[in-house]
Design goal:
The structure is a homodimer. By secondary structure, chain A is of the alpha/beta class. Chain A has one domain: Rossmann fold. Chain A is globular and about 55 Å long.
Chain lengths: 273, 273
């Protein structure tokens, strides 16, 4: 795992913004509580003003006084000194939803990209929801079909922003029927664990483990122990046959060791073996 | 497996009725081809005339001249001699979609129920789609929430019609995001394999094996080797933690051995192990 000492909070989209705000409260707590300095990055969305304003309202309602927004609508925006300064000053950078390709195209390789990695290595909390979640990994799902069986052609992969290694992330997981596309994504590259994160649910990643928070669950899809597949013979857009995928479903409070590819036993839980 | 020598065709709903009709063609082929005698059972639906007429049109279009419909709107309908005679005369009984509880409530324990089991033991092809698929097993999903993580309270189980043992069937699987509810169903009773059948997809069951046909895939969810769960401590409506579920996804042409709980190797497929 390559991410720095700063935790990642990877959110499956549609996090609660009106009730107890469990996930956003956790983001704030990790970033220093009421003294957190939050920078909301709206690069993924084409509605930066509306989306940015909503997060400013929510974070302020939750007691954070220092909330700013930063938008990148052309690559030059992410190379100016004020952009680097904004990141250096923040204790948390929060990526909103939108289109993950906007993040990699507009931010990838800029000075702000470098600054984000340096800051995360030094403790910056990096949070992202929906598109802001997908872009966290080294290889990301760019786009794909939902509500389908796994097929070779239904998911397009692309390089991500490399804040976390070894995983491919999908969001809105249960709500949008994305098992098929996540299986398609990990089947060809079983090095990656597939993390299917439900809405209003997040993983908090520290070093090589994550903990689940929020209302839904995180499905971990591990294709490393496939007993059988048709990967070597299936044609483009052909149906995948995958046997022996290991699936774990973890609700709030459960932890997973990404390096060992297994859940971490919970003391109040009875093991069946 | 308790089903007789007559094959079962268990369809995940929304089977093609206007194009190549792969699944309905297979039903006809199993039942004797153009000389098949098909009885369409509309007991599951509250629109028996419309639904029945549609299947009569389709089967006739596919070359079957002897297609009849039979509806059961009260239990007495299923005890009359003409009902038994209709089943004895048929080479295939096809259960339409609707509500699986209507099937078990209106047909369960009637003389027609007995006649169906006897006829299936003697070679009758038994097909069912959607609700007509769910009712096939000994324990069935009565109703449940979709697009959610697995939770104890989200799925209601009920006794089914016992045409096949050892499985719990869910339909419209990928299309309606039903992984969570199928996991919930099998987690508590890992004796059952969960079969998640996509739309326009079916399993053809003969003895203790099935073969997949149609456009989508069948997901086999096996909770027998759970490495870890919170089943013994979770409360009603609590979130389930399930680790080590074995998942296999099988598209058209693939076979599965229900008794051995494993896919049957396919000669044109390369095993990874």
């Amino acid at each position: 795992m390559s991410q720095g000492p700063g935790p990642l909070v990877i959110i499956g989209g549609a996090e609660d913004k009106t009730g107890r705000c469990t996930i956003l409260q956790e983001v704030i707590a990790l970033a220093g509580g009421q003294t957190a300095r939050v920078l909301v990055m709206t690069v993924a969305t084409e509605l930066p003003l509306e989306v940015g304003a909503e997060y400013v309202r929510v974070f302020e309602k939750l007691g954070v006084s220092d909330v700013r927004t930063f938008d990148v609508s052309k690559r030059e925006d992410a190379d100016v000194a004020s952009a680097i300064h904004a990141i250096e000053k923040a204790t948390c950078v929060f990526f909103t939803g939108g289109d993950q390709v906007r993040i990699t195209e507009l931010l990838g390789g800029t000075k702000m990209d470098t600054a984000l990695h340096i800051a995360n290595d030094q403790g910056l909390v990096l949070a992202g929801t929906s598109a802001g979640a997908s872009m966290m990994s080294s290889t990301m799902i760019e786009e794909g079909k939902a509500e389908t069986n796994p097929r070779i052609g239904i998911v397009n992969m692309a390089p991500g922003m490399e804040f976390i290694a070894g995983v491919v992330i999908d969001q809105h997981f249960a709500q949008r029927g994305r098992l098929g596309r996540l299986l398609s994504a990990v089947a060809q590259y079983p090095h990656h664990l597939g993390l299917g994160i439900d809405e209003d649910t997040a993983v908090v990643v520290k070093k090589s483990t994550f903990r689940v928070i929020g209302r839904g669950a995180v499905s971990v899809v591990d294709a490393s122990a496939l007993t059988y597949s048709n990967l070597s013979t299936v044609s483009e857009n052909g149906d995948l046959a995958l046997c022996g995928v290991t699936l774990s479903v973890l609700p709030s409070g459960y932890e997973f060791d990404l390096r060992e590819r297994r859940p971490i036993p919970k003391t109040d839980t009875v093991s069946n073996k």
